[in-house]
Amino acid sequence: MIEKVFNLVSPRWKLQRRGDYSQLRGYGFKILAVVLALLIAAWALETTGESSLELAKMLLDTSLKSEYGRKQLFQLATPLIFNGAAMLLALRMQLFNVGLEGQLYMGAFAAVAVGLNVSGPPSLVLLLMFLAGMTGGALYALIPALMRVKAGVSEILTTLLLNPLAIQIAAYIGMDVWRDDSALAGSSNATQAVPFNFPSNFGEVNFGFILAVIFVIGIWLVSTKTTWGYEVTAGGSNIGAAKYSGMPVIRNMLIVMLLSGALAGISGMVQLTEVTHRFSNRLSNNLGWMGVNVAVLTGTDSLALVPWGLFLALILFSGTILKTRGIMDEVVIAVTGLILLLTSVGEVLANYRLVNIAKLEEESVQNMLRSEV
Amino acid sequence: MSGITSDKPPLLEMQGIWKSFPGVIANRSVDLSLCAGEVQALLGENGAGKTTLMNILSGLYRADKGEIFIDGNPVNIRNPQDAFLHGIGMVHQHFRLVDNLSVAENIHLGWDQTPRILSKEKLSLRIKSLMEEFGLDCDPNAKIENLSVGEQQRVEIMKVLARGARILILDEPTSVLTPQEAAELFIALRKMTEDGRSVIFISHKLDEVLEVSDRITVLRRGKYLGCLPKEICDARALARLMVGAHVGEQKYQVKRSLGNPVLELQAVTALDDRGLTALEDVDLMIREGELLGIAGVSGNGQLELTEVITGLRRIQKGKILIREEDWTGKSAAKLAAAGVGHIPEDRTKMGLMPNLPVLHNAILREYRNPPIRKGLLLNKKPAAGLAARLVEEGDVRVPNIGTMVRVLSGGNQQKLLTQREIDIASRVLVAMHPTRGLDIAATEAVRRALIEHRNNGVAVLLISEDLDEIMTTADRIAVIYEGQITDSIDAIGANRDEIGMLMGGSKTAMRNRDD
């Protein structure tokens, strides 16, 4: 497509698709795209009278150079990495699970149910909450998964529509069913705080972040080193070929969808335990949706989820800081959008090379002459 | 040189047409001249640049270089609408008809002369008068889905003629027709040229080119080799021009003693995706070291037959035996493990994963078995070993096994696929249209691979629309028509016309059974 448009307007140069895919070239184009997006953002800020260099220095000082800033970054990156992994896994199988936000809420819901109603040694309850969060997210993803494999209903629609439902359920739980009426809570419209915390003796890094990294490594191992990972890659690449070779395509789709939901559910549980402690409809600020962005930025290499998650966390965190300076945080949304747009374009362009038409003709004549001899 | 001379400029002239695609020049300074009232054949093998040239003429592609004249005036054809305005109409190999609309509705679709106020009667009346004018016959009220392929083609032709085409381009029109339908088409073409229309007829079949055309333009690998009047041509000379080297009638068959039955289908009935009967009481038997060819016009149950044998489709009734063991209802994975290889009809939709490297494609069949599978793990070393071996044995031209399959040529893709399936096919190999769209060298390589595998004692089933392929490659031939398969006959001495009749559904079955 892109080469057709380009070739229509360019008389002398032509875009030609490359035969090989180089990971390195892909990264190069992505970093280039990010730099370009940041430059555009800087230019936009300049026009409003701000000094973008000064702002950039301030942002980096606040985020990377302070202990508080670094802690915030890891905390913010945790759900982004989990949900990015959830999206990436689903995309491997060509499943568009855009219901991560809802699955995150349902995971947190299951976790809070355990946390408020089970008493026991903290590590045991936390483990139960973790399992509950995983199950809650997976079960909420099971509905669209079954509709997809049994009735062929597009999972994009079903997962999308299940998001507001989950958030409304969260609102109902927080405002009514388990509302904390104590004076301390005031009118927060949330449940009581869960009285269990993850261990925090890892310096600046939060426990949830470590979990996220472990899961990313696990996903990478499974998808590149196991036969099941191969089946998922094959099924996502060409479902016809997977069926032809006798792979259990339907079963794999179900498993992938359940795993994707489980990851989103775990991120909900982590968010509840580490950040909000209380369950309400304000548990997640579009964290599930940000997972889509992380997955798109990451592309195919699942290990890259961690750096991209951290990078996006930096951008989001910058937004919070800018807000305190009176700059609208819509700027950050615009910058995120710009980065996504440009990296997507860059990713496509990385597969092409620019060639001179005259040279190309000469090359093929040469080839032809050689093959005719 | 031209057989037809006249003071008037030719109806159409294309001069010095160049067209290149990434890595290949499809047309290299090609000329073409077409007189009014002429049927001209455009002859060349697959990939010679015939369709590219005609796509340029009909506005689908734009030439890199070159000029087009109509009635001596230079014209600029930028899109299909321009081509229509200049009276150029093309009937593509794959029809562009709406299945659940009638003939009359299809012809009126997107036509600027369609009346504003529609009625069924009005439309069919208009079509009836058109049909009389063009000498084509078809029921205007019939739904497209109920028409035979030949009738559908007539509708396509009428669609183009109704829009006032003076130059009718037919892209491999007979590839989907039975010999009888093809003969009818030729008569219709002759009639059309009587009132000054011209026909360009793309083909790679020598006999029909000689039968129907006045002049023959030959292309080879994008190069224009000349335009010859039919009178001075014969099939052998044309073949030599088209292919570039001497080709003889190649027969692979050798008389050998027959082995034991390997694959047997007993009264198999199966449904297609819409739930209609696709195979009805099919009996079939292939012996050790035997190549059975199934001829037939596509859509008569061939796809379902391959899927039934390879475990991709459940059967309603009947039995499937491999070496006298019952394998009915077993999964595709189990059958593959039992030594049933499958070269599917569409290599990019089914047989291969174009967006993955050669490595991933090579292990598609073997990843479940040790040593490639080690517990839950995929063992990279033997996987790479298998890929390298398939590439070498199949003579697949590829820089390395990390190359994406989509960048390979069709021939190399098919060689990879064929070799992979041959590798697992220790008992049965099912091949559907294995050489479709390949050039002569790749076709030869694939056919030879099938033959060699047959010689190793494997039962090979070859399903093809190309009657020549079946006649030259198979040991025995059967015909499939509307889900039923005729008794097979010995390929040596088989009568082409008779097979053609059976492909078209004629009931006078052959009676010379060989067993």
Largest interface: A-B, 33 and 45 residues
- Mean pLDDT across all residues of chain B, rounded? 84
Q: Briefly note the CATH topology name of the domain at 72-327 in chain A.
A: ABC transporter involved in vitamin B12 uptake, BtuC
- The strand count of chain B comes to 23
Judged by helices, strands and strand pairing, the structural class of chain B is alpha/beta
The end-to-end distance of chain B, rounded to whole angstroms, is: 54 Å
Proportion of beta-strand residues of chain A: under 5%
Question: What is the CATH-assigned architecture of the domain at 72-327 in chain A?
Answer: Orthogonal Bundle
Oligomeric status of the shown chains? heterodimer
| Main sheet overview of chain A | 2 strands, antiparallel
* Total of DSSP H or I helical runs spanning 4+ residues of chain B: 17
Percent range of helical residues of chain A: over 70%
What does this structure look like?
The complex is a heterodimer of chains A (373) and B (515). With 373 residues, chain A is mainly α. Chain A has a domain of 256 residues: ABC transporter involved in vitamin B12 uptake, BtuC (Orthogonal Bundle). Helices cover 73% and strands 3% of the residues of chain A. Chain A has 15 helices and 2 strands. Chain A has a two-stranded antiparallel ribbon with strand order 1-2. In chain A, helix 4 runs parallel beside helix 8 and helix 8 packs across helix 9. The two termini of chain A are 35 Å apart. By secondary structure, chain B is of the alpha/beta class. Chain B folds into 3 domains: 232 residues, P-loop containing nucleotide triphosphate hydrolases (Rossmann fold); 180 residues, 3-Layer(aba) Sandwich (Rossmann fold); 79 residues, no CATH class. Helix content of chain B is 32%, strand content 25%. In chain B, strand 9 and strand 10 form a beta hairpin. In chain B, helix 14 runs parallel beside helix 15. The radius of gyration of chain B is 25 Å and the shape is globular. The termini of chain B are far apart. The C terminus of chain B is likely disordered. The interface between A and B is large, with 33 and 45 residues.
